[in-house]
Amino acid sequence: MEAQKVDMFIMTNGKYFESHEVIQIREQLLQLDDSKWSLIQTLQFKDPTTSLIVSLLGGSLGIDRFMIGDTGLGIGKLLTCGGFGIWAIIDWFIIMGATREKNIAKLRQALY
What we know:
Blueprint: H1 3-13, H2 22-31, H3 37-42, H4 48-58, H5 63-68, H6 71-79, H7 81-84, H8 86-111
Helix pairs in contact: 1-2, 4-8
């Protein structure tokens, strides 16, 4: 794929991934053929900052976990009121990383 397209993709979507993964993503996209480019462009990633805000406001109800696709954890948080508040507080610190991991998994699934 063209380096200019890949660089534009990285500039636009870099905040959705862990910083140490960006270089690896760029290399994988450069090796990709143009037939998958339209699929890659249509992917919609979850914003880690939005996940954090939702976690702060509705984390004890599991809304943050439902939002990123962790249905089982969302149900667990909902039934236990955020693990009696403890789980909700822990998620304030890890939800952004979990969102970025889900985004990279979605991208890797589209690449292969």
